[in-house]
Amino acid sequence: ETGVTQTPRHLVMGMTNKKSLKCEQHLGHNAMYWYKQSAKKPLELMFVYNFKEQTENNSVPSRFSPECPNSSHLFLHLHTLQPEDSALYLCASSQVSGGVGGNTIYFGEGSWLTVV
Amino acid sequence: AQRVTQPEKLLSVFKGAPVELKCNYSYSGSPELFWYVQYSRQRLQLLLRHISRESIKGFTADLNKGETSFHLKKPFAQEEDSAMYYCAPNNAGNMLTFGGGTRLMVKP
Q1: Domain containing residue B67: CATH number
Q2: What pLDDT band is residue A99 in, cutting at 50, 70 and 90?
């Protein structure tokens, strides 16, 4: 499949578990992102990676730990989460040209996380 | 602080009626504005961006810098337009800030 793929699509985990979400982009982009989408809040940017380097951590609790081994893969490691962390986690990518202004961001279908 | 406001959480119209989804932003500098759409069971995807000045699926959006608005409009709504719509300014390189979204329901 082309575009941005995320696995697993659904995950149920206990508060003491450790799990990871995986994202892969097949678009040749140089930037990747994690967003959180929950029913009660707007889409929230969590992390940004440019050229594999983390450039933004939007005040995300340390129980969420991102990893970007290369420009095509992005992980979100989850540890001792809380029930309020249950949400749809979206991965996205874009090609950053370095110019002023925005670039189209391409999203994956998301990973539904339920913390019990 | 950067802020995006979509005042309507739900907008319900009949098929064939005009539709306008409102977006107001508070940003420093001159952001580029995007509208993203999420159809049922599909991923969030770009609908249009103001720099392109295009009409996509009959939708247009005009950037009004004086009013700091970027409202999305379509003269005749179709049932397949039913979806969640997000306004997203981008003024920090490659980072988007999304509004709260407006759910558009087009009734037959």
Answers
A1: 2.60.40.10
A2: low
